[in-house]
Amino acid sequence: MKLKIILNEIEKKIASKPTLYFFLITFCVNLPAVFFARGYGMHDDHFGPIEQPWAIINNPEIWNSRSTPHAHSIFYPLLHYFLFKILYSCGITDPQQVMLVVRLLHSMYSTLTIIFLYKILSLKYNQTIAIRTSILAPLLWFMPFLSVRNLIEMVCIPPMAISFYFLLKNEREKKNLVLSALFFALAFAFRYQTLMISGTVFLILFLRKHFIESLVFGFSFLLFALLIQGSVDVFAWGYPFASFIEYVKYNFTHSGEYTTGPFYRYFLLLVGIFIPPLSFYILFYLFKNFNRNLCIVLPILVFFFFHSVFPNKQERFILPIVPFVFAFGLANFLDAVYNGKIFTNRKRYYKTIWTIFWIFNIPLLVVLSLNYGKKTRCEALYFLSKRNDVMGVYQITGKLGTFKPPEFYLNKYGTPVVEIPHLDSLDKFTSNTYQPNYAVIYGENEEVDSLRSSAEMKLGKQMKFLAKVEPSLVDWIVYKLNPKYNKNQTAHIYKIGCD
Known about the structure:
By secondary structure, this protein is mainly alpha-helical.
């Protein structure tokens, strides 16, 4: 009873200033990830938004020599370009310090998702359900880690949450429709696939015979998309929506070249990340009262269906709808429980569901929030960034195969990082064109010794061991589970040419 009283008091406190308290709750939950979840999780949350603007700042000729439109929006990298320019002008040039600021800003930005989820839920459900659902959303084990990443699939979520809020607040009021269209256009500029969500909203309004409202929404979206994304493309490529057109062409001609899987792949993903058996109830009750939240659930379903049937299936593609699936599925589930529709005589089973959820969620939340993604790649080059005599770096990966080095962490633009997947290819780099004086060898002890000895013979120089960088716990686990796609072995750093 005392716990219930305490919870009720907390809910009353939150309800008095929900924006403030949900900002503080989300920000505090994200704070460990801000400081400890360094590095990056996958290729796309570093090399586009971070490496690209950093390279252009150091070599403007990259921008001046552009030719055909890139098959991705430059809107998000452009924001990092301006941020980096500001930080560099303030004397903040250390890569780790720069990325700390980036993660901090993303953490603060991500609080908008939770704040507007609460605002949306409070329009549809009672205060208890809205507050409890909104508190749980930032505590999902993967949310803090992903909220500080540079993933456009996560960055597009806050403007979508704001869009849904204005839409559901009053879909017949033209001012709300214009504001909703504005933020959907912003989400589109981050992630083109969100067009399926805003497009479905337009169709819902039209099929409801709200013709004036649908035209206001559709025209406003096109206008704002033209002003945001179109103007950026005119500046970069000479005509509006150049990158979007190129993106569509590329995906329909190269979709089979990436990760594929069965149509139920994303369904299994949602079942797993929401932790069963709770996840089954969340997914079931998301569609249980379909008409109650039609303007959100149907666009989510269209987005989900498209990605389920499209050949290119990467886990991150489904992220834009994950908070909405969780929030509305859980809210409907709690509504059924609190109204006595289910579990009236099975309260022990209901408690067991939540016990299982927290048993798995809390450890995963802690581990992932403290995880340094791609630690060996980042720390090896960051270690060398502190040395003033680096003329070049051999990246010797052996059986791992090649992977793109995050040169941002080396912070020495123009210094070559030469990828050596097989030692035979060392021969072509021993000319006067390249004279790397450091090497980073990836592998385990015996393999590294063999690679080092072979490299010394080919180069005709001794190599002095300097440091070893172990992978983070999560990197090590995913490498052991799937070494083919997770190249996270230990990095060994050497100085070349030492007696």
